[in-house]
Amino acid sequence: MNSVEKRAILGVGGIFALRMIGLFMIVPVFSVYGDNYAHATPFLIGLAVGIYGLGQAIFQIPMSLAADKFPRKPIIFLGLILFAVGGMIAANATDIYEVIIGRALAGSGAVSAVLMALLADVTREEMRTKAMATMGLTIATSIMLAFAFGPLLVGSLGISGLFWLTSGFAILAMLLLVVVPTPMRVLKHNLDNKTIGQQLATVLKIGDLNRLHIGIFALHLTMTAIFVILPHQLSDVLGLSVRQQGMVYLPLLFIGFASRYRLLSSLKRNAKCVRCFWVRLH
User: Fold this and answer.
1) Domain containing residue 227: CATH number
2) Over the stretch 152-185, which tens digit does the pLDDT of each residue have?
3) Verdict on whether the full-model pTM lies above 0.85
4) With contact defined as beta carbons under 8 Å apart, do 99 and 37 qualify?
5) Does 277 reside within a domain?
6) Integer-rounded Cα radius of gyration of the chain
7) What CA–CA distance (Å, rounded) separates 4 from 10?
8) How many domains does one find in the chain?
9) Could you tell me if residue 180 is left (phi over 0), alpha (psi between -120 and 50 degrees) or otherwise beta?
10) CB-based burial of residue 106 (10 Å sphere; 0-12 exposed, 13-18 middle, 19+ buried)?
11) Which of 99, 124, 223, 240 has the least CB density, counted as fewest CB within 10 Å?
12) Closest listed residue to residue 164, CA positions, set 91, 83, 85
């Protein structure tokens, strides 16, 4: 990799890491501390946790379309501002509805796809797979750290402090955006001469993508539901404090990460064996 590609991976990876750590520090602790907000109910606490993902799902396509028509870095900057402001609103919240508004606003800064597109713009085709793999590793590592540090920090900072930390990470991510090289590209003002509705209709007809959408939705729904219920169970049944729960999540995440890596390696070896058998057969 050349120096431009290394700068791009460092900058984009840092932005991803800061966003993911800020986001996932909240997830394993909010169901316990959410009871302290006025008007809180189990449903509204779950909504406050999950509405971030809903905002991401709704605004990912508009943000990506805007990034195809305008320079990508200002769109990313706008998304990070929304993420930071949403965190500030949640940090100052006194009732659960204000938290929901803050989380929804933070989720509307859906720039993950734009970040990946920016990385693709500044990396050569032969280096792109390595760059994307590095992003995947960065995201996985960030989530593991967040699940460990969230429960450890909430005791001293409180849930409001974690939201302030999230906003601080977003501001640091804005500064990191300066490190990322600005690509030279031709802006597309009319993609394939199709309207947005026509493009969306074409995508929705792709069966493999729809199965992927359903699978990802089910995954996030399950994870959100688990972390609305699990922290209370660990506290009530096992007597673990929120701080101690972080020490439960971290080794489990490491085991899951190692198992996933081993499974993917096994699938890769099996795929090679199948290809070799097919070649010999023919």
Assistant:
1) 1.20.1250.20
2) 898 889 999 999 999 999 999 999 998 888 877 6
3) no
4) yes
5) no
6) 21
7) 10
8) 1
9) beta
10) buried
11) 124
12) 91
